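Dear H.,

Thanks for agreeing to be a second pair of eyes. The structure we're designing against is below in C-alpha cell form, covering all 322 positions.
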C-alpha cells in the first residue's frame, strides 16, 4: 500500500505535439499523440467516436506508481483505463489517456528523482487540457482523475476544464495518509518515521534517515514529498466552480468511501456516487480480498457498468450547459 503512495515518476512542461496516423475501428478512431519536451517525449492515445459532430472529450489521468495510460503496470495488467476510454467512445465521448513521464512509451523522458516535483504532474495535465481546448473537434473538456490522478486533476482543472470527475480519489492530504499506513507497522518504524514526515510538512529535508526507512525517505525523494504534502484535496476541490462528480467503489482496498465523503462535503456543488462492490481498478468483485487482488491482474474482467453510467450521464447533462 505504501509503495502506491510513494511511487515517484517524473513529468515536465510540454513544448509541442506531434500526431501519428490514426488507428481506425468501426466504432471509434485512435490517434497516437506525442508531446515533445525539453527532456524527452510524452506519449498518449486520443480515442474518439467516428462522427463528424463535435463531442465532449475527457482527459484521463492515471494513478500513482508505474501505471501506464491503460491502467497497467509491469506486474499487473487490468486494462481498466483502456476499457474506460472505449466505453466513453461508445457513448459519443472522446478521451485522451497518456503514459506518465518515465512510464511506458514515455520512459525515456523521465526526470531524475531529485528534480521531480508534484507540480510537474499538475503542469503536465494542464498542458494536455490546453491541447484539447484548442482542438475544434471537441465541444467541452473534462478531467477524469483516478486515485492520485484525482488530486492532480482537480488542481489542473481549475479555471481550465469544463468539468471534473474524481474516481477513487483520496480525501486527505498525503502526509496524513502516509502516517495512517505507517501506524500499522511496528512501533519502531512509526516512531522513526513520524518526525521525518513532520519535518517535510514544514518544508525541511532530513539529512540523517534510518536505513530501514531509506526506501521511503531517501534524500533524493524528499523534495518531491515536500511538494506533494502541500496539497490538501479538500482544499483544492473546494476551489472548483465547475461541475464535479465524485465516484468511489465500496470494495476499494486502497481508498475508502470516507475519502469520497470528505471530498463531497468540501464542495456543495459536487455530486457523490458510491458504486457497490467496485474495487480500486474499477472492477466489480465480492468482499473476498483474494478475489479483489486477483482482479488487479485480470484484463478480461470488464469495468463496472455503473461507473460508465454515472460518467456518461454527468458529461451528457453538464455538456449541454453553456
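And this is the sequence the design step returned. I haven't edited it by hand at all.
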Amino acid at each position: 500500500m505504501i509503495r502506491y503512495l510513494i511511487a515517484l515518476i517524473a513529468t515536465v512542461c510540454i513544448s509541442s505535439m506531434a500526431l501519428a496516423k490514426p488507428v481506425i475501428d468501426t466504432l471509434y478512431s485512435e490517434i497516437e499523440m506525442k508531446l515533445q519536451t525539453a527532456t524527452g517525449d510524452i506519449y498518449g492515445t486520443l480515442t474518439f467516436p467516428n462522427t463528424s459532430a463535435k463531442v465532449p472529450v475527457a482527459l484521463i489521468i492515471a494513478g500513482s506508481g508505474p501505471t501506464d495510460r491503460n491502467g497497467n503496470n509491469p506486474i499487473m495488467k487490468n486494462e481498466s483505463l483502456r476499457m474506460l476510454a472505449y466505453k466513453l467512445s461508445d457513448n459519443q465521448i472522446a478521451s485522451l489517456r497518456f503514459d506518465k513521464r518515465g512510464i511506458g512509451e514515455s520512459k525515456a523522458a523521465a526526470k531524475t528523482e531529485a528534480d521531480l516535483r508534484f507540480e510537474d504532474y499538475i503542469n503536465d495535465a494542464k498542458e494536455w487540457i490546453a491541447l484539447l481546448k484548442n482542438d475544434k473537434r471537441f465541444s467541452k473538456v473534462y478531467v477524469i482523475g483516478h486515485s492520485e490522478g484525482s488530486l492532480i486533476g482537480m488542481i489542473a482543472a481549475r479555471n481550465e476544464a469544463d468539468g471534473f470527475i474524481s474516481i477513487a480519489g483520496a480525501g486527505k492530504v498525503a502526509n496524513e495518509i502516509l502516517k495512517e499506513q505507517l501506524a500499522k507497522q511496528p512501533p519502531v518504524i512509526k516512531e522513526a518515521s513520524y518526525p521525518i514526515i513532520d519535518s517535510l510538512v514544514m518544508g525541511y529535508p532530513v539529512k540523517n534517515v534510518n536505513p530501514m526507512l531509506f526506501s521511503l525517505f531517501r534524500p533524493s525523494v524528499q523534495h518531491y514529498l515536500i511538494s506533494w504534502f502541500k496539497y490538501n484535496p479538500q482544499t483544492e476541490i473546494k476551489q472548483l466552480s465547475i461541475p464535479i462528480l465524485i465516484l468511489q467503489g465500496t470494495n476499494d482496498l486502497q481508498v475508502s468511501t470516507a475519502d469520497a465523503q470528505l471530498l463531497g462535503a468540501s464542495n456543495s456543488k459536487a455530486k457523490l456516487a458510491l458504486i457497490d462492490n467496485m474495487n480500486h481498478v474499477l472492477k466489480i468483485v465480492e468482499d473476498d480480498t483474494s478475489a479483489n487482488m486477483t482482479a488487479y491482474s485480470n484484463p478480461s474482467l470488464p469495468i463496472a457498468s455503473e461507473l460508465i453510467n454515472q460518467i456518461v450521464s454527468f458529461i451528457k447533462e453538464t455538456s449541454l450547459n453553456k
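Two observations from my side: Strands lie at 16-19, 23-24, 28-37, 40-49, 55-61, 94-98, 138-146, 163-167, 244-249, 270-275. The chain has twelve helices and ten strands.

Warmly,
E.
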